[in-house]
Amino acid sequence: MNNRPLIGVGILVVRHGKVLLGQRKGSLAEMSFELPGGHLEHAESFLACAKRELSEETGLVLVSLEFLCVSNFLISGKHYVDIDFLGRVLPGEAHVNEEQKSVGWNWYDLDNLPSPLFEPAKLTISSYIETEFACHDLVTEH
Q1: Which has the closest alpha carbon to 86: 71, 67, 108?
Q2: 59 Cβ partners below 8 Å, 6+ apart?
Q3: All structural domains of the chain with their residue ranges
Q4: For the chain, how are helix, strand and coil distributed in percent, rounded to 5?
Q5: Which residues of 70-109 are buried (b: 16+ CB within 10 A; e: fewer)?
Q6: Phi/psi zone of residue 34: left (φ > 0), alpha (ψ -120 to 50 degrees), beta?
Q7: Which residues are CB-neighbours of 48 under 8 A, at least 6 positions away?
């Protein structure tokens, strides 16, 4: 049995003061609200992972990333290191591409977040609120 931690990459997308969250389905912490993201694959860069996961899960196109935080946690007996970024995306609406993993993607006000939040999402949103980035709208217009 391999006891090494799994590496997750999360992308916090903010638009007009709202964050993009989806409800988890068929996995740990089912029905909690999470950020787009997923597991880092062998020899994959953080940017490549974030682009792939965001596109696979939501259909949104990532333009750029800014490092936000790292968390180290245990959930249901699994050890994860989660590396989270603030993502700038092209305009467009998020939709469910992986119905087996997500119930839906919606935009939520930072001061009225749904519950329960998946622990990595909670830590990432807290990190975001505590930074200077909280004042910026991170949608790239083209």
Answers
A1: 67
A2: 92, 93, 94, 95, 97
A3: 6-135
A4: 20, 40, 40
A5: ebeeeeeeeebebbbbbbbbeeeebebeeeebbeebeebe
A6: beta
A7: none
Pick the CATH number of 6-135 from 3.40.50.300, 3.10.25.10, 3.90.1150.10, 3.90.79.10: 3.90.79.10
Which residue numbers in the chain have pLDDT < 70?
1, 132-142
Which pLDDT score, from 0 to 100, does residue 130 have? 86
The DSSP code sequence of 39-61 is EPPTT--HHHHHHHHHHHHH---
Q: Kindly tell me the sign of the dihedral angle through the C-alpha atoms of 141, 57, 68, 42.
A: negative
pLDDT at 1: 57
62 CB burial (10 A radius; 0-12, 13-18, 19+): buried
Q: What tens digit of pLDDT does each residue of 23-44 get?
A: 988 777 778 999 999 999 999 9
- Determine the Cα–Cα distance for residues 138 and 28; give it in Å rounded to an integer: 29
CA distance 113 to 116: 9
